[in-house]
Amino acid sequence: MATLINISLLVLSIVLATGRNLLNTHLASVLDSAVFYPTLNIGMILLSLAMSIIIFKESFTRRHAFVLAFAFSGMILVNLPS
């Protein structure tokens, strides 16, 4: 039973990684790279913060709020029209 669950998780992670790579490839061809890559990196930081709070039950501290505020500010500044 555990082997079946492990195989299922492996297949799920492969499917999700493939989907993410296809989406990244498409967005990299559509968006300007000066906007795409910083937004992608900041998005990963925000996703990591959210998952650490949801999955690992970490408490939301002032430091997290500080990082969250700067990440959103950075995303807004990068995506402003020139």
Protein described:
The chain has two domains: about 1-30; about 30-80. It has three helices and no strands. With about 80 residues, it is mainly α. Helices cover about 85% and strands about 0% of the residues. The mean pLDDT is about 85.
Question: What is the element layout, followed by pairings?
Answer:
Blueprint: H1 2-30, H2 33-54, H3 62-79
Question: What's this entry about, in short?
Answer:
This protein has 82 residues and is mostly helical.
* SS content category: mainly alpha
How far apart the termini lie comes to 56 Å
Number of helices, counting only DSSP H or I runs of 4 residues or more: 3
Secondary structure: helix percent: over 70%
Counting structural domains, the number is: 2
Rg from alpha-carbon coordinates: 17 Å
Please name the defining characteristics of this protein.
82 residues; mainly alpha; flat
